[in-house]
Amino acid sequence: MPRTPLAHARTPRCSQILENVIRFKWGALPEEQRSGIRNFLSNLIIRYTTDEALFRKESTFVNKLNIILVQILKHDWPAKWRTFIPDIASASRTSETLCENSMRIFKLLSEEVFDFARLDLTQVCAGGCGA
Fold first, then answer.
1. pTM (2 decimals)?
2. At residue 76, does pLDDT exceed 60?
3. Where are the domains of the chain?
4. Which of 5, 40, 45, 78 is deepest in the core (most CB within 10 A)?
């Protein structure tokens, strides 16, 4: 039986490749492909988080999807994905588990922002902070 694109997306190797493409090659992809990946990933997250049983059963996979989404956000938000906050807020109203996952996404995003700010401050201080 042939595997569906969704089945391929669930393989650890596929998700790792996608994450690496987003981290290192995202800007080189045409906008149409970036938009398609963003939409596919968003829809996949919604699919896995609107059903509580599926959300609990596939929590590791959902977490990986969240991490990949945050990688996209680091490149595209807010400049190229201005509607992210309204989109996620609106979607969160439809399901308690989707809302819970949205909070997880915000937590991951805030951790990334904090880590980036700390790294930036460290680099500034390495150049002569407190001298």
1. 0.81
2. yes
3. 5-126
4. 45
